[in-house]
Automatic annotation (TrEMBL):
It comes from Archangium lansingense. Coiled coil: none annotated. Pfam families: 3-dmu-9_3-mt. Residues 4-128 form the PhnB-like domain. This is VOC family protein.
Length: 133
């Protein structure tokens, strides 16, 4: 079996909420597994020990860290989505930007007919693009 590469997202108590939100944004998306902390385990009981989900065939993993860290997500790493229609980019951009921060506003750019770069309400950075092709 070949090695698997996945994007891994660490949250502090919002992993399941974020994962459920992300899965709701795309047609081909699902939660593929979830394991929660139980009584007496090192994380908050019921929070996500390890979960995986799929967005349009791309596998992601996420956890709720019980340890407070001095770091969080950064826009230097983002999830890039090639949208298939103007309706998709408009809808996904509107939902992801709610409670988040727009880094580059939705509009036309030399490299894309329509593009937006944002950090969502959880701090995860996204680039959505509708290319010229």
């Amino acid at each position: 079996m070949a090695s698997r590469v996945s994007t891994f997202l660490m949250f502090e108590g919002k992993a399941e909420e974020a994962m459920t939100f992300y899965v709701s944004l795309f047609k081909d998306a699902s939660v593929t597994s979830i394991k929660r902390y139980g009584p007496g385990e090192p994380g908050t009981e019921g929070s996500v020990m390890m979960a995986s989900f799929s967005l349009n065939g791309q596998r992601f993993m996420c956890i709720d860290s019980s340890v407070k860290h001095a770091f969080t997500f950064t826009p230097a790493t983002s999830i890039f989505v090639d949208c298939e229609s103007e309706a998709e980019i408009d809808t996904v951009a509107a939902k992801l930007s709610e409670g988040g921060q727009v880094l580059m506003p939705l509009g036309e750019y030399p490299f894309a007919r329509k593009f937006i770069w944002l950090a969502d309400r959880y701090g995860v950075s996204w680039q959505l693009s509708l290319t010229n092709a």
